[in-house]
Amino acid sequence: MTSPRSRPLPSRSLSPTIKRPDGDPAVLIDAVPVAQGQRVTVSFESVGPRWRQGVFLATAGHLAVNGFTGSSVLLWSDTAPSNVTVDVEETDGRLVVYNVWDSGRGCGRHESQSATSGMVVEELAAGSYRYSCTDIGSEPDFTRLVFRLTIA
Fold this sequence. Notes:
This protein is mostly beta strands.
């Protein structure tokens, strides 16, 4: 569920190819502010039927979830509870977030950040964000994975 960080974490980056429904670029990788001692809850709201879908979280520091500690956490919608709480034990002040999937094509542990993937990020009230994600395909479908991130 966790893995060590061996390279610097990216900042928010936009997709050079995928557009949101409003025509603006989709977010490829997001980075949201967090502080040591905060709790982040990932809530899976909906998952499309095509492939296994998940969420990758990382910080320059330590995250803890269900007895595991590391700089990154990979949560799969089919094996994680619908709501997962992640404790921010140490951080550089930001949490990197992006969607992942497993298409079953043997591409490795998980797939992410392809030329046709991206997220629509909606800022909600009081430290919450909704991510509507697309993975791969000729037309973006932002219903492949929808999850909410709440920071408290």
